[in-house]
Amino acid sequence: MKMRLLCGALLVGLVVVPGVQAQQFDDRWYVAGSAGLNVQDSERGTRNAPFFTLGAGRMVSPAWSVEGQFNYQNPNLDINEDLYWSQYGVSLDLRRHFMAEGQGWGPYLLVGLGYQRAEEEFDASPSPQSPGQREDGNLAAKIGAGLQSDLGRLAVRAEVAYRADFDDSSVNAPDSDWFGDMLASVGVVIPLGPEPVAPVAPAPTPSTAPNCADMDDDGDGVNNCDDKCPGSQAGQTIGPDGCPVPVSIDLRGVNFDFDKATLRPDAVQILSEAVQILQRYPELRVEVAGHTDLCGPDAYNQQLSQRRAQTVFDYLTSNGIDASRLAGPVGYGETRPLEQTPQELPACKNERNRRTELNVQNS
């Protein structure tokens, strides 16, 4: 019977414990008191009796508490209610709490170890010293489970436990080596001291990280926020978006017929692309330069290159490019050939040398 009760107490403890985490740690000392019913082991020959406890303890971690407890009960003997029988003791109890954050109630498991003392009167007739009295103390252990509210200012506790009392000298039950009692109680837990206050998070410190608008990692004069080409190198001509632009916008294909300064139809598309480049970079200034091949007198070639540069200049301004952004037009004659050729006909006829260029200005 006693073993069945022990197993039952263990099962109760397992059933009431869900898999939850302990809540915020409240490590205040507390005092506790409870009252309940002590269901006596039937082998004692005593009746069930009320009992009470007084204790003190504290939470030692978010999930564990330790409590020292005093208990007292005064049951009557079945065979003679006039005979005195009392039992009291102390124990050190360890509770494993399962309180979740935001949950007002939480279950717990209990184990305890202590000392129980019995004071037992018995009929010693026909001795003149009747009734006789036995006073004895012995080891006791208990297991149990309960439900406790959050501490706050006051907590409420309900508990069921099984206590094994290793009393092997009972007069009323001489054949028993130990007794198992069931304890069911309700009580209060009163924390001592002010309720802990959650620490206030420090105010966020102002960010000291530099703003990208104030940084220019590649030193190209364009801040990191606007720089679309952060890998550009010093010395390059950089547009307002941080990307390199060609020092010379080669109008490859804008060539001229021999001894002519008029635009050929195939040059219009290329000049349109040059207009788009200049519109994309509104801060860009360019020199409009004209060149000739090595055929003919120098003075004539100078005038011819000037007319070719003027033709491109006029095209750009007529298509929306402000003249203030254009230096020139400048004719370089035959002084800057891309390919060195003889000066005699027909070898001097070189279409690559008969060209115009837009040379980017740094200021």
From TrEMBL:
It comes from the Bacteria. It is a multi-pass membrane protein. Residues 332-363 are annotated as: Disordered. Residues 243-363 form the OmpA-like domain. The lineage of its organism: Bacteria, Pseudomonadati, Pseudomonadota, Gammaproteobacteria, Lysobacterales. It is found in: Cell outer membrane. It comes from Lysobacter korlensis. Coiled coil: none annotated. CDD domains: OmpA_C-like. This is OmpA family protein. Its main location: membrane. Keywords: Cell outer membrane, Ion transport, Membrane, Porin, Signal, Transmembrane, Transmembrane beta strand, Transport. Residues 1-22 form the signal peptide.
